[in-house]
Amino acid sequence: xxxxxxxxxxxxxxxxxxxxxxxxxxxxxxxxxxxxxxxxxxxxxxxxxxxxxxxxxxxxxxxxxxxxxxxxxxxxxxxxxxxxxxxxxxxxxxxxxxxxxxxxxxxxxxxxxxxxxxxxxxxxxxxxxxxxxxxxxxxxxxxxxxxxxx
Length: 150
Fold this sequence. Notes:
It is built from 5 helices and 7 strands. The chain has helices spanning 4-18, 28-37, 49-54, 78-85, 100-111; strands at residues 24-26, 42-45, 62-63, 67-68, 73-74, 92-95, 117-120.
């Protein structure tokens, strides 16, 4: 396990290399380490309620939908809900199924004044394999990190 400073430096370098407008990008294992090393850090799971209930949850996360199931319309209250649940000064990591919605959430939070936003690359389920299946290539669950059935 690296130090918190090492992990965040690596995440910032990734963000710079990828041209991301927020603080950094972490792998699931790195995000878990940050949670252990920085107790004030928040992991915000932006997946839909359906995903949380049917696929699984990460204990201790803040759950705020970025899009709502089944319409997959943007949650117009996302920033208000985030502001009510997460201090703008906190280190905030965003996670979704594969890293795309969490990227959007990190961008929105950063634009709204959250200075320490990080995206969790690969998300909860990771990328699809050659057969179109998730949970086999990358992701929180595939990494063996703590989670529970919805």
